[in-house]
Amino acid sequence: MTPPTTLLRNGTLYDGAGAPPITADLLIRGDRIAAIGDLRAESASRAIDLTGSPSPPASSTCAPGATHRPPFPYP
Fold this sequence. Notes:
By secondary structure, the chain is mainly β. The protein is 5% helix and 39% strand. The longest helix is centred in the last third of the chain and has 4 residues, at 58-61.
């Protein structure tokens, strides 16, 4: 079975190391980040526009054992 995909568009991404934030798309396939960048050509089973919504550093949202919910609607 193909894992579900979620495409987060136009998110403000922070690297957690102090670099300036970037605006990018993020593709999640199953429970893994599959791609980050300009993903206009990608399709997904679910797409969420994050324009104006900051995203925390990837290390905090993807850390094993994380107990908080991501900053976007997620079932």
